[in-house]
Structure formats: C-alpha cells, structure tokens
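Let us practice reading a record.
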Amino acid sequence: MKKFLAFFVMLGLVFFVFGCKTPEKEKTGFDYDAIPDTMESTNGKYQIAFVTDIGQLKDKSFNQGTWEGLKRFASENSKSYKYYQPANGDAATDDDRYDAMVAAVNGGAEIIVCAGFMQAAALEKAAKENPTVKFVFIDGWPLGFDNINAVVFKEEQSGYFAGYAAVMEGYTKLGYSGGGGGTNPACQRFGYGYIQGANDAAKEKGITVEMKYSWNYGSTFSASADLQTMLNGWYSTGTQVIFSAGGSMCQSAFAAASANQGKVIGVDVDQSNDSATVITSATKGLREGTMYALKAFYDGKWAEIGGKQTNLGAAEDAVGLPQETWSMTKFTLEDYQDLLAKVKSGKVKIDDDATGAETKTYSNVNLDYIQ
C-alpha cells in the first residue's frame, strides 16, 4: 500500500512540475515544437540525421537543444531529417551507437550530428568507413578526420554566470549535482565555473558561502529515485539552490526542489518552462552550434571547419543566462549585462581547467565534496 501511495505522490509531483508551461515561442520568438519530430521524405531518404546521446530525445537539455537546432535548419532549408537513438537506452554501448550511425548512413544521410562525448569510439569507426559522409560531433573533438567538425562550448563561462548570479541574488547555501560521474568534460567545466562565479560574488560581498558538490547518481545523465533522495536531503538540511547539470537529471532536481520549496538552476537550454523552481539556466548554444555547422556544410564551406574544433563562448553569444525569462530581482538584468561585457572583453577571466576542481581550496566557498 505504501508503494502505491508513493507512486501517486510522485505522479502528482510530475504533473505539478511539468503541468504548467509557457509556449516555447513566447520565450525564444521561435516555435520549435511546431516542427514535427518525425517526417516522411518523398524518397525514403533523410539528408540530415541526428544520433542522440543517452537519455530521452526530449530531455529538456542536451539532446533536445541539439535536435531543435537540427530541425529548425532542416525545416528552413527544405532538408529531410530523422533522429536515431542507440539501442539499450542508458546502457547503450559503442556498438549500439555505431549501429545507429550506420542506420543513418544507410538512410541516406549526407551529414550526421552526434551528441555527447561518449560517441567518440563509434564515431571514429563510422567516420573512417564513410569518408564522404560528414559528421558533427557536439561536445567532442575532430578525432583526426577531415569529415568531422567538433562543436564545443565554454561551459565554465556559463557556469560562472550561474554561480555569480545565485550569490548576488542572496543565496548562501548552494549545491551542484553533475552528470557523467565526474568524467564528462562539459559537466566538469560547468561545475568548476559555478564554483568560481560563486566565489567571486561572495568575495565582492565579503561573505563565505557553502556548496555541496557531487557526481553521485549522475553517471547515466538520468533522473532516479536515488538522486532525488540525495537532493531532498540537501534541501532539507539548508541548501537553497542546486545547479543540476546532466540532461534528464533535472527531473529529480525539480521534484526535490518542489517538495522542499527549494530552487534549481537549469542547464544547456532555458529550463524555466519546465519547473517553477528554476531561477535561471546556465545555457549553451546547442541550437546555434548545430545550425552553424549544418550551414557551413550546405554553403559549401566544409573545408573551413572539417577536421577542426569550433569553440563557442560568451564572445560568440553562445553561452550565458537567458535574458528573455529573467526572474531574479536583486541581481538585475543590467548587472548581468555588465558582467557579460567584462567576460567578453577579458576583464573577468575564468579558468577552464576543471581538473581536480572538487579538491581545490577556494577563498570564499566552503566546498563539501560528497563522494
């Protein structure tokens, strides 16, 4: 009986968290939901393919942001498109990812967008075997192939903005829950930037802030009962806001925050539409980066990006906090624009080497690394 009650409580939380949404068009000026996820091409072939990372296609984060950029480009340029999800879900292997790429090639793909650093081994094999097909490796590296363009982001900058904003808004007890088990470079940079931003803001205010920091229960980038229980514990012992950086992990953070009147900082895309608990999101231009590479290919400029890494940050307006849905009051939009300008100009410098961030000592952040 208790299990049934717990199920219905969780079901109610899901409806509470996700039930009230602002249309995407009102936030971004473009209605990504109006473009269908599936289409029927006239010849049964699909020119642009997407091989997803682990997690759901509509994960409110990494997969979704990349997919929306692909769909928009295809729709606006009359290209056929299709997504391929590796078999076995969160337990997908390199063979599963490779099989999805092969299916995309056999499906007629001219260019394949692969999301997530775990695609590397499969992508190396697929790119070598299919030299005439172009690949875009989001959050990856060129792997030594001219038919691969890697698109990466300066997540440390976006994380910095989030940490700085949270402390300036008045929060002094922070949390960071990261994906990939501590091995994902993007999540490592998000977390390290978050610490740096919080530290600099606390230094300006002459205070010390507390931060819980953990990679626990995030190796598969998925929501789970264990993750939600851990975050519930954080909130119940005083944590005020948690930066959840790890795809569908956000769902556990939203539920825990809702149950404890806590707050969440979203990641990758503007997640304010997904939960009333979100105060801001540390975004990166997944849509824009994807569209950039696709445009270069179809404009005949692949030679300029093939075999290279495209690194996008604040200077390219590719990372930051969403301004259209600004809800903070103490840290104002004007304050943020001033900070953004300083980062763009180099006046504010942010370290991008996240190696060992969990064990470093910070002047104004007491870091509680939970293993």
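A brief commentary: The first helix runs from residue 2 to 18.
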